Amino acid sequence: MCAVRVDHHPVDHDGAVARLRRSYTAVPVGEPVRLAKRTSNLFRPRSAPRAPGLDVGGLTGVLAVDPVARTADVQGMCTYEDLVDATLPHGLMPLVVPQLRTITLGGAVTGLGIESTSFRNGLPHESVLEMDVLTGAGEIVTARPEGEQADLFAAFPNSLGSLGYATRLRIELQPVRRFVALRNVRFTRLEALADALAEITATRSWAGEAVDVMDGVMFSPGEAYLVLGSFTDDALPASDYTGQDIYYRSLRRRTHDVLTAYDYLWRWDTDWFWCSAAFGVQHPVLRRVWPARWRRSDVYHRLVRLEHRHGVAARIDRLRGQPARERVVQDVEVPLERTAEFLRWFARTVGMTPVWLCPLRLREPSGPGSARAWPLYPLRAGQNYVNIGFWGSVPIVEGAADGDVNRAIERMVSELGGHKSLYSDAYYDRESFDRLYGGAIWRAVKDRYDPDHRLTGLYEKAVARA
Locate the FAD-binding PCMH-type domain: which residues (predicted)? Predict the structure, then answer.
Protein backbone atom coordinates (compact mmCIF):
# COMPACT_ATOMS: atom_id res chain seq x y z
CA MET A 1 0.00 0.00 0.00
CA CYS A 2 1.43 3.38 -0.97
CA ALA A 3 1.35 6.50 1.19
CA VAL A 4 -2.17 7.90 1.47
CA ARG A 5 -3.74 10.96 3.06
CA VAL A 6 -6.54 11.61 5.50
CA ASP A 7 -7.33 15.27 6.11
CA HIS A 8 -3.97 16.19 4.54
CA HIS A 9 -1.86 14.26 7.08
CA PRO A 10 0.48 11.89 5.19
CA VAL A 11 0.88 8.36 6.50
CA ASP A 12 3.74 6.26 5.13
CA HIS A 13 2.20 2.90 5.82
CA ASP A 14 4.63 0.90 3.70
CA GLY A 15 7.58 2.44 5.51
CA ALA A 16 6.06 1.73 8.90
CA VAL A 17 5.45 -1.92 8.01
CA ALA A 18 9.02 -2.22 6.72
CA ARG A 19 10.37 -0.87 10.03
CA LEU A 20 8.14 -3.30 11.93
CA ARG A 21 9.48 -6.25 9.95
CA ARG A 22 13.08 -5.14 10.45
CA SER A 23 12.54 -4.88 14.18
CA TYR A 24 11.02 -8.37 14.17
CA THR A 25 14.07 -9.75 12.39
CA ALA A 26 16.31 -8.07 14.97
CA VAL A 27 14.77 -9.98 17.89
CA PRO A 28 17.13 -12.88 18.68
CA VAL A 29 15.67 -16.34 18.18
CA GLY A 30 14.53 -17.67 21.54
CA GLU A 31 13.72 -14.23 22.97
CA PRO A 32 10.07 -13.19 23.47
CA VAL A 33 8.63 -11.00 20.72
CA ARG A 34 6.69 -8.04 22.10
CA LEU A 35 5.46 -4.65 21.01
CA ALA A 36 7.56 -1.62 21.93
CA LYS A 37 4.72 0.58 23.17
CA ARG A 38 4.62 2.93 26.12
CA THR A 39 0.97 2.59 27.09
CA SER A 40 -1.26 -0.37 27.82
CA ASN A 41 -4.77 -1.03 29.06
CA LEU A 42 -3.85 -4.48 30.37
CA PHE A 43 -3.93 -5.35 34.06
CA ARG A 44 -1.84 -8.48 33.73
CA PRO A 45 1.64 -8.14 35.23
CA ARG A 46 4.25 -9.51 32.84
CA SER A 47 7.83 -10.58 33.07
CA ALA A 48 10.34 -7.94 31.99
CA PRO A 49 11.42 -8.27 28.34
CA ARG A 50 15.06 -8.98 27.63
CA ALA A 51 15.05 -8.08 23.93
CA PRO A 52 14.00 -4.90 22.10
CA GLY A 53 10.31 -4.72 21.23
CA LEU A 54 8.71 -4.44 17.81
CA ASP A 55 8.77 -0.95 16.30
CA VAL A 56 5.10 0.04 15.91
CA GLY A 57 5.71 3.80 16.07
CA GLY A 58 4.53 4.39 12.50
CA LEU A 59 1.34 2.32 12.81
CA THR A 60 -0.79 4.75 14.80
CA GLY A 61 -2.86 6.51 12.16
CA VAL A 62 -6.05 6.41 10.11
CA LEU A 63 -5.22 5.67 6.49
CA ALA A 64 -8.57 6.44 4.88
CA VAL A 65 -12.22 7.05 5.65
CA ASP A 66 -14.77 6.24 2.94
CA PRO A 67 -18.00 8.03 3.91
CA VAL A 68 -19.91 6.48 1.01
CA ALA A 69 -18.99 2.86 1.72
CA ARG A 70 -18.92 3.66 5.46
CA THR A 71 -15.56 2.02 5.99
CA ALA A 72 -12.20 3.05 7.37
CA ASP A 73 -8.71 1.67 6.82
CA VAL A 74 -6.89 1.99 10.12
CA GLN A 75 -3.43 1.07 11.33
CA GLY A 76 -3.28 -1.47 14.13
CA MET A 77 -1.88 0.82 16.83
CA CYS A 78 -4.31 3.66 16.18
CA THR A 79 -6.18 4.62 19.35
CA TYR A 80 -9.93 4.93 19.31
CA GLU A 81 -9.48 8.55 20.32
CA ASP A 82 -7.67 9.26 17.05
CA LEU A 83 -10.02 7.02 15.07
CA VAL A 84 -13.11 8.84 16.35
CA ASP A 85 -11.48 12.19 15.58
CA ALA A 86 -11.16 11.04 11.96
CA THR A 87 -14.67 9.61 11.56
CA LEU A 88 -16.91 12.06 13.44
CA PRO A 89 -16.38 14.90 10.92
CA HIS A 90 -18.01 12.56 8.37
CA GLY A 91 -20.96 11.90 10.70
CA LEU A 92 -19.67 8.37 11.28
CA MET A 93 -18.30 6.27 14.13
CA PRO A 94 -17.01 2.71 14.53
CA LEU A 95 -19.75 0.18 15.21
CA VAL A 96 -18.37 -0.30 18.71
CA VAL A 97 -16.17 2.29 20.47
CA PRO A 98 -14.57 0.86 23.64
CA GLN A 99 -14.92 3.19 26.57
CA LEU A 100 -11.28 4.25 27.09
CA ARG A 101 -9.54 6.67 24.74
CA THR A 102 -6.20 4.91 24.40
CA ILE A 103 -7.49 1.44 23.60
CA THR A 104 -6.14 0.67 20.12
CA LEU A 105 -8.14 -0.83 17.29
CA GLY A 106 -5.71 -3.75 17.01
CA GLY A 107 -5.87 -4.24 20.76
CA ALA A 108 -9.68 -4.28 20.81
CA VAL A 109 -9.74 -6.89 18.04
CA THR A 110 -7.04 -9.22 19.37
CA GLY A 111 -8.01 -8.64 23.02
CA LEU A 112 -11.76 -7.93 22.76
CA GLY A 113 -13.66 -4.75 23.53
CA ILE A 114 -17.23 -3.77 24.30
CA GLU A 115 -19.47 -0.74 24.71
CA SER A 116 -23.06 0.43 24.69
CA THR A 117 -23.74 -0.45 21.03
CA SER A 118 -22.80 -4.09 21.64
CA PHE A 119 -26.39 -5.19 22.19
CA ARG A 120 -26.89 -4.65 18.44
CA ASN A 121 -23.35 -4.55 16.96
CA GLY A 122 -21.59 -7.24 18.96
CA LEU A 123 -17.87 -6.81 19.64
CA PRO A 124 -15.28 -4.71 17.75
CA HIS A 125 -13.83 -7.62 15.79
CA GLU A 126 -17.26 -8.29 14.24
CA SER A 127 -17.02 -5.08 12.19
CA VAL A 128 -13.65 -6.02 10.65
CA LEU A 129 -13.82 -6.70 6.90
CA GLU A 130 -10.15 -7.62 6.44
CA MET A 131 -6.85 -7.16 8.20
CA ASP A 132 -3.14 -7.36 7.49
CA VAL A 133 -1.33 -9.37 10.15
CA LEU A 134 2.36 -9.77 10.95
CA THR A 135 2.50 -13.46 11.79
CA GLY A 136 4.91 -15.29 14.05
CA ALA A 137 6.76 -16.38 10.93
CA GLY A 138 7.54 -12.73 10.17
CA GLU A 139 5.23 -12.58 7.15
CA ILE A 140 2.45 -10.09 6.38
CA VAL A 141 -0.77 -11.85 5.35
CA THR A 142 -4.21 -10.39 4.59
CA ALA A 143 -6.89 -12.28 6.48
CA ARG A 144 -10.55 -12.13 5.44
CA PRO A 145 -13.70 -13.98 6.56
CA GLU A 146 -13.39 -16.25 3.54
CA GLY A 147 -10.37 -17.50 1.65
CA GLU A 148 -6.93 -18.86 2.39
CA GLN A 149 -6.42 -17.04 5.72
CA ALA A 150 -9.99 -17.45 7.02
CA ASP A 151 -8.69 -19.62 9.88
CA LEU A 152 -6.48 -16.76 11.10
CA PHE A 153 -9.32 -14.26 10.69
CA ALA A 154 -11.58 -16.37 12.92
CA ALA A 155 -8.95 -17.18 15.55
CA PHE A 156 -7.41 -13.71 15.81
CA PRO A 157 -10.01 -12.26 18.26
CA ASN A 158 -8.93 -13.01 21.83
CA SER A 159 -5.56 -14.35 20.69
CA LEU A 160 -3.80 -11.48 22.55
CA GLY A 161 -0.91 -11.23 20.10
CA SER A 162 -0.11 -14.93 20.31
CA LEU A 163 -0.93 -15.41 16.60
CA GLY A 164 0.37 -12.11 15.25
CA TYR A 165 -0.17 -8.36 15.25
CA ALA A 166 -2.57 -6.43 13.02
CA THR A 167 -0.87 -3.71 10.97
CA ARG A 168 -3.98 -2.57 9.04
CA LEU A 169 -7.67 -3.23 9.52
CA ARG A 170 -10.62 -2.27 7.33
CA ILE A 171 -13.70 -1.80 9.48
CA GLU A 172 -17.33 -0.87 8.98
CA LEU A 173 -18.66 2.45 10.25
CA GLN A 174 -22.13 3.60 11.27
CA PRO A 175 -23.90 6.97 11.10
CA VAL A 176 -24.01 9.03 14.29
CA ARG A 177 -25.84 12.26 15.15
CA ARG A 178 -24.56 15.36 16.94
CA PHE A 179 -26.07 14.47 20.32
CA VAL A 180 -27.14 11.50 22.40
CA ALA A 181 -30.36 11.93 24.41
CA LEU A 182 -30.27 9.72 27.50
CA ARG A 183 -32.85 8.18 29.83
CA ASN A 184 -31.64 6.86 33.17
CA VAL A 185 -34.16 4.19 34.17
CA ARG A 186 -34.03 2.91 37.75
CA PHE A 187 -34.75 -0.70 38.73
CA THR A 188 -35.19 -2.04 42.24
CA ARG A 189 -35.40 -5.68 41.12
CA LEU A 190 -32.66 -7.30 39.06
CA GLU A 191 -35.17 -9.62 37.38
CA ALA A 192 -37.08 -6.60 36.08
CA LEU A 193 -33.85 -5.13 34.75
CA ALA A 194 -33.07 -8.41 32.96
CA ASP A 195 -36.56 -8.46 31.43
CA ALA A 196 -36.05 -4.90 30.20
CA LEU A 197 -32.69 -5.83 28.65
CA ALA A 198 -34.32 -8.70 26.76
CA GLU A 199 -37.13 -6.49 25.47
CA ILE A 200 -34.84 -3.67 24.37
CA THR A 201 -32.43 -6.04 22.65
CA ALA A 202 -35.33 -7.58 20.72
CA THR A 203 -37.17 -4.36 19.82
CA ARG A 204 -34.43 -1.69 20.08
CA SER A 205 -36.94 0.51 21.85
CA TRP A 206 -38.29 1.24 25.32
CA ALA A 207 -41.54 2.94 26.28
CA GLY A 208 -42.15 3.87 22.65
CA GLU A 209 -38.74 5.51 22.03
CA ALA A 210 -35.86 4.16 19.97
CA VAL A 211 -32.75 2.90 21.78
CA ASP A 212 -29.44 3.22 19.89
CA VAL A 213 -27.09 2.71 22.86
CA MET A 214 -27.55 0.93 26.17
CA ASP A 215 -25.51 0.19 29.26
CA GLY A 216 -26.07 0.43 33.00
CA VAL A 217 -24.74 0.51 36.53
CA MET A 218 -25.63 -1.51 39.62
CA PHE A 219 -25.03 0.30 42.90
CA SER A 220 -26.67 -2.52 44.86
CA PRO A 221 -29.07 -5.39 44.03
CA GLY A 222 -31.89 -3.01 44.98
CA GLU A 223 -30.62 -0.02 42.99
CA ALA A 224 -29.58 -0.40 39.39
CA TYR A 225 -29.94 1.79 36.32
CA LEU A 226 -30.16 1.26 32.59
CA VAL A 227 -28.92 4.18 30.51
CA LEU A 228 -30.85 4.25 27.24
CA GLY A 229 -29.65 6.61 24.53
CA SER A 230 -30.95 7.82 21.19
CA PHE A 231 -28.91 9.65 18.55
CA THR A 232 -30.36 13.04 17.65
CA ASP A 233 -29.50 16.25 15.80
CA ASP A 234 -31.84 18.34 17.95
CA ALA A 235 -29.91 21.25 19.43
CA LEU A 236 -30.34 20.51 23.12
CA PRO A 237 -28.41 21.87 26.13
CA ALA A 238 -25.70 19.29 26.76
CA SER A 239 -24.13 18.29 30.06
CA ASP A 240 -20.38 18.41 30.64
CA TYR A 241 -18.76 15.74 32.80
CA THR A 242 -15.17 16.68 32.06
CA GLY A 243 -15.17 19.34 34.81
CA GLN A 244 -16.52 19.23 38.35
CA ASP A 245 -19.51 17.00 37.63
CA ILE A 246 -18.90 13.25 37.65
CA TYR A 247 -20.82 11.16 35.15
CA TYR A 248 -21.73 8.02 37.07
CA ARG A 249 -23.16 10.06 39.95
CA SER A 250 -25.59 11.73 37.57
CA LEU A 251 -27.48 8.46 37.05
CA ARG A 252 -28.93 8.73 40.55
CA ARG A 253 -30.10 12.33 40.26
CA ARG A 254 -31.19 12.70 36.64
CA THR A 255 -33.86 10.81 34.75
CA HIS A 256 -32.94 12.51 31.45
CA ASP A 257 -29.67 13.88 30.13
CA VAL A 258 -28.01 14.98 26.89
CA LEU A 259 -24.38 14.69 25.79
CA THR A 260 -22.64 15.58 22.57
CA ALA A 261 -21.78 12.46 20.60
CA TYR A 262 -18.09 13.04 21.31
CA ASP A 263 -18.59 13.46 25.05
CA TYR A 264 -20.88 10.44 25.15
CA LEU A 265 -18.22 8.20 23.61
CA TRP A 266 -15.71 9.25 26.28
CA ARG A 267 -18.12 9.70 29.21
CA TRP A 268 -16.42 6.91 31.16
CA ASP A 269 -12.84 7.92 30.37
CA THR A 270 -12.69 11.14 32.42
CA ASP A 271 -13.03 9.29 35.72
CA TRP A 272 -12.08 5.80 34.51
CA PHE A 273 -15.69 4.89 35.24
CA TRP A 274 -15.54 5.58 39.02
CA CYS A 275 -11.98 4.39 39.68
CA SER A 276 -10.52 7.92 39.80
CA ALA A 277 -11.82 8.04 43.38
CA ALA A 278 -8.84 5.89 44.38
CA PHE A 279 -6.57 8.85 43.55
CA GLY A 280 -8.75 11.43 45.31
CA VAL A 281 -9.69 13.06 42.00
CA GLN A 282 -13.40 13.03 42.84
CA HIS A 283 -12.88 15.18 45.96
CA PRO A 284 -14.12 18.69 45.04
CA VAL A 285 -10.99 20.46 46.32
CA LEU A 286 -8.48 18.19 44.58
CA ARG A 287 -10.61 18.09 41.44
CA ARG A 288 -10.38 21.86 41.05
CA VAL A 289 -6.57 21.77 41.04
CA TRP A 290 -6.10 18.48 39.17
CA PRO A 291 -5.48 19.56 35.55
CA ALA A 292 -8.28 18.60 33.18
CA ARG A 293 -5.72 17.14 30.76
CA TRP A 294 -4.83 14.61 33.49
CA ARG A 295 -8.41 13.43 33.95
CA ARG A 296 -7.89 10.53 31.58
CA SER A 297 -7.80 6.78 31.93
CA ASP A 298 -4.23 6.48 30.64
CA VAL A 299 -2.98 8.84 33.38
CA TYR A 300 -4.72 6.79 36.07
CA HIS A 301 -3.35 3.59 34.52
CA ARG A 302 0.19 4.96 34.72
CA LEU A 303 -0.36 5.69 38.42
CA VAL A 304 -1.54 2.13 38.95
CA ARG A 305 1.56 0.78 37.20
CA LEU A 306 3.76 2.90 39.46
CA GLU A 307 2.00 1.44 42.50
CA HIS A 308 2.48 -2.10 41.16
CA ARG A 309 6.17 -1.36 40.69
CA HIS A 310 6.87 0.38 44.00
CA GLY A 311 4.05 -0.75 46.31
CA VAL A 312 3.85 2.52 48.25
CA ALA A 313 0.16 2.19 49.15
CA ALA A 314 0.65 -1.46 50.14
CA ARG A 315 3.50 -0.51 52.50
CA ILE A 316 1.38 2.22 54.07
CA ASP A 317 -1.46 -0.27 54.62
CA ARG A 318 0.95 -2.65 56.34
CA LEU A 319 2.23 0.11 58.62
CA ARG A 320 -1.39 0.88 59.55
CA GLY A 321 -2.02 -2.76 60.33
CA GLN A 322 -4.39 -3.19 57.40
CA PRO A 323 -4.68 -6.60 55.71
CA ALA A 324 -3.15 -7.18 52.30
CA ARG A 325 -5.54 -6.72 49.40
CA GLU A 326 -6.35 -8.81 46.35
CA ARG A 327 -6.81 -7.04 43.04
CA VAL A 328 -10.19 -7.85 41.51
CA VAL A 329 -10.22 -6.23 38.07
CA GLN A 330 -12.42 -8.20 35.68
CA ASP A 331 -14.99 -8.08 32.91
CA VAL A 332 -17.15 -11.18 32.58
CA GLU A 333 -19.92 -12.15 30.17
CA VAL A 334 -22.89 -13.91 31.80
CA PRO A 335 -25.99 -15.19 29.96
CA LEU A 336 -28.81 -12.71 30.45
CA GLU A 337 -31.09 -15.20 32.20
CA ARG A 338 -28.38 -15.88 34.83
CA THR A 339 -27.33 -12.24 35.30
CA ALA A 340 -29.50 -11.51 38.36
CA GLU A 341 -28.19 -14.68 39.99
CA PHE A 342 -24.57 -13.70 39.37
CA LEU A 343 -25.06 -10.11 40.56
CA ARG A 344 -26.62 -11.25 43.83
CA TRP A 345 -23.83 -13.79 44.35
CA PHE A 346 -21.24 -11.12 43.59
CA ALA A 347 -22.80 -8.60 45.99
CA ARG A 348 -22.94 -11.23 48.73
CA THR A 349 -19.51 -12.79 48.13
CA VAL A 350 -17.30 -9.96 46.85
CA GLY A 351 -19.26 -6.86 47.87
CA MET A 352 -17.65 -4.49 45.38
CA THR A 353 -19.78 -1.64 44.03
CA PRO A 354 -20.64 -0.07 41.67
CA VAL A 355 -20.45 -2.54 38.80
CA TRP A 356 -20.90 -1.81 35.12
CA LEU A 357 -23.55 -3.58 33.05
CA CYS A 358 -23.23 -3.77 29.28
CA PRO A 359 -25.52 -6.08 27.27
CA LEU A 360 -24.16 -7.78 24.18
CA ARG A 361 -25.14 -10.27 21.55
CA LEU A 362 -23.11 -11.65 18.67
CA ARG A 363 -23.80 -9.60 15.58
CA GLU A 364 -26.16 -11.03 12.97
CA PRO A 365 -25.35 -9.00 9.84
CA SER A 366 -27.45 -11.12 7.46
CA GLY A 367 -30.42 -11.91 9.66
CA PRO A 368 -31.19 -14.22 12.58
CA GLY A 369 -28.97 -17.23 12.92
CA SER A 370 -26.16 -15.83 10.76
CA ALA A 371 -23.77 -14.79 13.53
CA ARG A 372 -20.19 -15.91 12.92
CA ALA A 373 -18.41 -18.17 15.38
CA TRP A 374 -15.25 -16.89 17.09
CA PRO A 375 -13.54 -19.99 18.48
CA LEU A 376 -11.18 -18.37 20.99
CA TYR A 377 -14.09 -16.61 22.73
CA PRO A 378 -17.03 -18.93 21.98
CA LEU A 379 -20.14 -16.91 22.80
CA ARG A 380 -23.29 -18.59 21.51
CA ALA A 381 -25.14 -17.17 18.52
CA GLY A 382 -28.62 -15.97 19.45
CA GLN A 383 -27.77 -15.79 23.17
CA ASN A 384 -28.07 -12.49 25.04
CA TYR A 385 -25.24 -11.80 27.48
CA VAL A 386 -24.45 -9.06 29.96
CA ASN A 387 -20.88 -7.89 30.41
CA ILE A 388 -20.33 -7.19 34.10
CA GLY A 389 -17.31 -5.05 34.90
CA PHE A 390 -15.82 -4.56 38.37
CA TRP A 391 -12.50 -2.98 39.12
CA GLY A 392 -10.88 -2.59 42.49
CA SER A 393 -9.50 -4.68 45.36
CA VAL A 394 -10.76 -6.54 48.40
CA PRO A 395 -9.07 -7.42 51.72
CA ILE A 396 -7.50 -10.86 51.89
CA VAL A 397 -9.26 -12.45 54.85
CA GLU A 398 -7.40 -14.55 57.40
CA GLY A 399 -6.70 -18.02 56.08
CA ALA A 400 -7.26 -17.04 52.43
CA ALA A 401 -4.67 -16.64 49.69
CA ASP A 402 -4.18 -13.91 47.14
CA GLY A 403 -6.24 -14.91 44.10
CA ASP A 404 -8.95 -16.83 45.94
CA VAL A 405 -11.66 -14.27 45.13
CA ASN A 406 -10.72 -14.22 41.45
CA ARG A 407 -10.75 -18.01 41.36
CA ALA A 408 -14.22 -18.06 42.89
CA ILE A 409 -15.41 -15.60 40.24
CA GLU A 410 -13.95 -17.77 37.48
CA ARG A 411 -15.75 -20.84 38.83
CA MET A 412 -19.09 -19.04 39.14
CA VAL A 413 -18.87 -17.54 35.65
CA SER A 414 -18.14 -20.98 34.17
CA GLU A 415 -20.98 -22.60 36.14
CA LEU A 416 -23.39 -20.02 34.72
CA GLY A 417 -22.25 -20.63 31.12
CA GLY A 418 -20.32 -17.37 30.81
CA HIS A 419 -16.84 -16.26 29.79
CA LYS A 420 -14.19 -13.98 31.22
CA SER A 421 -12.10 -11.44 29.37
CA LEU A 422 -8.35 -12.04 29.64
CA TYR A 423 -6.99 -8.50 29.98
CA SER A 424 -6.39 -9.02 33.71
CA ASP A 425 -5.44 -11.75 36.18
CA ALA A 426 -6.48 -15.30 35.28
CA TYR A 427 -5.97 -18.47 37.32
CA TYR A 428 -7.23 -21.35 35.14
CA ASP A 429 -5.34 -24.60 34.85
CA ARG A 430 -4.32 -25.37 31.28
CA GLU A 431 -6.99 -28.01 30.68
CA SER A 432 -9.80 -25.67 31.77
CA PHE A 433 -8.28 -22.79 29.80
CA ASP A 434 -8.08 -24.84 26.60
CA ARG A 435 -11.69 -25.94 27.02
CA LEU A 436 -12.97 -22.40 27.59
CA TYR A 437 -10.80 -20.57 25.04
CA GLY A 438 -10.59 -22.84 22.00
CA GLY A 439 -7.24 -24.43 22.76
CA ALA A 440 -7.31 -27.04 19.98
CA ILE A 441 -8.18 -24.49 17.28
CA TRP A 442 -5.63 -22.04 18.65
CA ARG A 443 -2.88 -24.65 18.42
CA ALA A 444 -3.75 -25.54 14.82
CA VAL A 445 -3.65 -21.89 13.74
CA LYS A 446 -0.52 -21.30 15.80
CA ASP A 447 1.31 -24.16 14.12
CA ARG A 448 0.39 -22.81 10.67
CA TYR A 449 1.27 -19.13 11.14
CA ASP A 450 3.94 -19.35 13.86
CA PRO A 451 5.54 -22.77 13.30
CA ASP A 452 8.58 -21.96 15.45
CA HIS A 453 6.36 -20.52 18.22
CA ARG A 454 8.29 -17.27 18.38
CA LEU A 455 5.26 -15.42 19.75
CA THR A 456 4.36 -16.10 23.37
CA GLY A 457 1.51 -18.57 23.74
CA LEU A 458 -2.01 -17.57 24.74
CA TYR A 459 -2.02 -19.46 28.04
CA GLU A 460 1.44 -18.16 28.85
CA LYS A 461 0.29 -14.59 28.28
CA ALA A 462 -3.07 -14.79 30.03
CA VAL A 463 -2.30 -17.02 33.00
CA ALA A 464 1.46 -17.48 33.36
CA ARG A 465 2.06 -13.70 32.87
CA ALA A 466 4.85 -14.30 30.39
Answer: 1-176
